[in-house]
Amino acid sequence: xxxxxxxxxxxxxxxxxxxxxxxxxxxxxxxxxxxxxxxxxxxxxxxxxxxxxxxxxxxxxxxxxxxxxxxxxxxxxxxxxxxxxxxxxxxxxxxxxxxxxxxxxxxxxxxxxxxxxxxxxxxxxxxxxxxxxxxxxxxxxxxxxxxxxxxxxxxxxxxxxxxxxxxxxxxxxxxxxxxxxxxxxxxxxxxxxxxxxxxxxxxxxxxxxxxxxxxxxxxxxxxxxxxxxxxxxxxxxxxxxxxxxxxxxxxxxxxxxxxxxxxxxxxxxxxxxxxxxxxxxxxxxxxxxxxxxxxxxxxxxxxxxxxxxxxxxxxxxxxxxxxxxxxxxxxxxxxxxxxxxxxxxxxxxxxxxxxxxxxxxxxxxxxxxxxxxxxxxxxxxxxxxxxxxxxxxxxxxxxxxxxxxxxxxxxxxxxxxxxxxxxxxxxxxxxxxxxxxxxxxxxxxxxxxxxxxxxxxxxxxxxxxxxxxxxxxxxxxxxxxxxxxxxxxxxxxxxxxxxxxxxxxxxxxxxxxxxxxxxxxxxxxxxxxxxxxxxxxxxxxxxxxxxxxxxxxxxxxxxxxxxxxxxxxxxxxxxxxxxxxxxxxxxxxxxxxxxxxxxxxxxxxxxxxxxx
Length: 612
Ligand code: ADP
Ligand code: ZN
Description:
Blueprint: H1 3-13, H2 24-32, E1 37-40, H3 47-57, E2 61-65, H4 69-81, E3 86-89, H5 95-106, E4 112-115, H6 123-131, E5 134-139, H7 159-164, E6 171-176, H8 181-190, E7 197-200, E8 208-214, H9 218-228, E9 234-237, H10 241-253, E10 258-261, H11 267-278, E11 284-287, E12 302-305, H12 312-319, E13 329-335, H13 338-348, H14 358-380, H15 385-392, H16 406-411, E14 413-416, H17 418-431, H18 437-445, H19 450-455, H20 471-483, E15 487-489, E16 497-499, H21 503-508, E17 514-517, H22 538-555, H23 559-562, H24 565-574, H25 579-583, H26 590-611
Parallel strand pairs: 1-6, 1-7, 2-4, 2-5, 3-4, 5-6, 8-13, 9-11, 9-12, 10-11, 12-13
Antiparallel strand pairs: 14-17, 15-16
Helix pairs in contact: 1-3, 2-3, 5-6, 13-14, 17-18, 18-20, 22-24, 22-26
This protein binds adenosine-5'-diphosphate (ADP) and zinc ion.
């Protein structure tokens, strides 16, 4: 078996996934070949598997340098659940626990060890590392090594001397979600990566809608926004703890269920707030940036920033917590010039830099101000918001026009589409309810796909009658027509289009129809994604998620460590009846099958019996 075959087997058997995601396969292959890797992948892309899979395939130990205690703990719990031997070494361990863990490590009990950067150069750890067979050193959140980055951490500068002190240099892989060009160069230089294999998956998240609202009355604007998103779950980020408390109170006074969350709250209360939100008991959480790390709630439909954050790295990371399930989601920034003053103050009085020497402090503060300037450009400039974000992260954007941000939508123009609407309705009637939106749009635009030819649909009389329009626009028109009952969609896995109650009015052309659409010549840089059809069985999903909650409480781990929401959704979709079928659910590997498979199979069987 080749190393890559072994990697695929681990992906399937240990982690329960059928296929690699973009970027993962090439990262794994490069690491297995012994190369250094620099991977820049957005939040949620699946960075962990890129190094965990090689860790399990390679002989020897993988060390993962990670900056956050909570992140380490979650990762190790998650690995243990999958049956992988892992441990963490940080300041939460007593000296006895630490000595025991090192002893275990020396005896080869762990395949993966998470370690805080400050530990690396301590005597005890060095002695262990120099005597061990270390196959790979992973630097997680690698931007922390750079003074250009938003979270510079002096301890990261010890990674390179640590690696240099090892008898045999292991392969080194560095991972980050937010690295600009300058930060990438710093990572390569300061970690002394050797011709690292670059893994760059696109930064774009097409299902996120970006919006900036300039406002003097944030409360009114926030209430207005939440009114538009009633019944959805989301996060409101505030710049200070005080703002968190005030905004949470304000929302409750206005009849919106919300909990507050910040690092100054007692642990227990904070834990409850998080749990209420993650388990969907309370739809809105108002939080400082302390909230979010390691949280895997996939059905977050919006992220509002009540205050502008200090840089685009923070903004994109926080906003990126919306829509991880791939559904449409909105990211709204409320902006007022006072945000710039607040952030400048925070930079000038930062506690984070008090450990650094004076010279470094000056450099760090200056770069923080530069990043703040870029963030302010985002809030106040003109042109596509998505394009501005992507360019900031060094991505080339050819057509600065995404059609899915407030700036692009403002460029949409209202025009008369009476004739176009009638043509759409005629096409839908001609197809007699057999096709969905994409097909109807393709036919109207005159696209000759293989499927269309095969079925002879290009011979329909309306074929290509809207060839001057983009498919994007035609789909947008169809959406509008559905919204006002001219067309209707069937329920089910494949929503099909039919004529609706008001179809005749449109065919008669009694009244002019006007819609806001992108200019005809605009080809969107990024295609706008539309809401998927019916999701999994909601009632079953709720029961599975309750079972997960009970198990999580019994074992004192966060629910997503047992199964992620995506896994529960897939399970509710596939409704497995056998062990083999359960193993086909995305995210169910052998370790989790052993631990939880039976319980979930029983719950599904019970549900099916009751609903027969
Ligand atoms: P990141 O660190 O890049 O933010 P994670 O490593 O936490 O992302 O992965 C995000 C989620 O995606 C996790 O729930 C993980 O289990 C899931 N995931 C990772 N790789 C795959 C894959 N190949 N197929 C399906 N899900 C995956
Ligand atoms: Zn745009």
